[in-house]
Amino acid sequence: MKWITRERPKIDRIACPWLIRRFIDKEAEFIYVPFDQVLPEAAKQNAIPFDVPNVQFTHAGPLCTFDALIKEYKIKDDAVHTMAVIVRAADTDRHDLAVQASGLWAISAGLAYNYPNDHELLEKGMLLYDALYSWAKHLQQEKHTQQPFEDLLISVLNRYLKNKPGSKKKTPAWAQELKDIIQDHIDANLSLKELSKGLDINPSYLSREFSRYFENMSFGEYIRKQRIEKAIALMKQPSYSLTEIAYLTGFSDQSHFTRIFKKHTGQNPSVYRKKLVKK
């Protein structure tokens, strides 16, 4: 079978091909094209479209395309169902659902950054999900710190860091510069790794210190907030549909955009836009 989806995959559009090849069709072929070419090319090449709006295999409510495939093909493997929660959490920015979600997102974003060719990225991503499956199948109870003295040292270090004295610092120059960069490039695919290079700051330090200077938010939370503000600005222009606004502001699809928008504003985008136009 041929399967087709949007170019530049990260989470769902790598996880789904892994699931298809490992549990549905090991000879499956995958095609990545620009968003507006998915459905025309699907018809032309007799391919199954996925992870785009208004097709069978896509997001539905809080569930992602990975979930839709599991349901349709009745996959019962417990390890796959464990993976599904992690994939869903990472793909929909619900990192509270699974502690592994932030790591999966970070590694996936890094792979996409390192491999601009989508098919090469897919093959590297297959190794990632093979590893995640092995962990879910065999290693969930394993811990990295196996010895009691390691746990004790970590506990002492955490208490010291928590109680370490020190006064609040003024906003450093890099934080103000970073705010300006984010504001100017909010519709781009931003990553802390890439930003740290431009600021000449260690990426680990930037990740650790980010929330201190950005409204007590993580990098992902702050970017989502800025994207919602950008979306509201675009809503004032009637030439843009809500689907176009979702993609112009970096959301994976309209359902993802709708959920995040409602979380931030308390209203669906369509309702909010109607009220905005009336003002």
Number of domains: 2
Low-confidence stretches: none
- What quaternary form is this? single chain
Q: What characterizes the major β-sheet?
A: 3 strands, parallel
Radius of gyration: 21 Å
SS element count, helices: 14
Q: In what order do the strands lie side by side in the largest sheet? A: 2-1-3
Structural class: mainly alpha
Mean pLDDT over the full residue set = 86
Number of strands: 3
Question: What shape does the CA trace take?
Answer: globular
Q: State the helicity in percent bands.
A: 55-70%
> How much beta, percentage-wise?
under 5%
Report, as a whole number of angstroms, the end-to-end distance. Answer: 51 Å
SSE sequence, one letter per element: EHEHEHHHHHHHHHHHH
